[in-house]
UniProtKB/TrEMBL annotation:
It comes from the Bacteria. This is RHS repeat-associated core domain-containing protein. It comes from Paenibacillus sp. SYP-B3998. Residues 5-89 form the Teneurin-like YD-shell domain. Keywords: Repeat.
Amino acid sequence: MVNLMDSTGRTKLNSYSYDIFGNIVSQTENLPQPFKYSGEMMDDKVGLQYLRARWYDPSMGRFVGEDSYGGQVNNPLSLNRFTYVENNPLTHVDPTI
């Protein structure tokens, strides 16, 4: 999520800016709400985001639990079951979210 608008779509209530791994660089939040990077729920108390299948730690750029997908032998970056989008969130998306 980058902006949260009011019901008219004319007034910006919240604004967020992130680095490539989802760490908040800047934010203006007039209406507290849990949906942040990738439009998914962020637990600010523990600093983790739930990306529908696993908890993600943007400060590490890693998931805290293993991916059930085993990866592809011909693509070594896919074999690490904790990385977020093969360490390349600029050009890849996580298919589980």
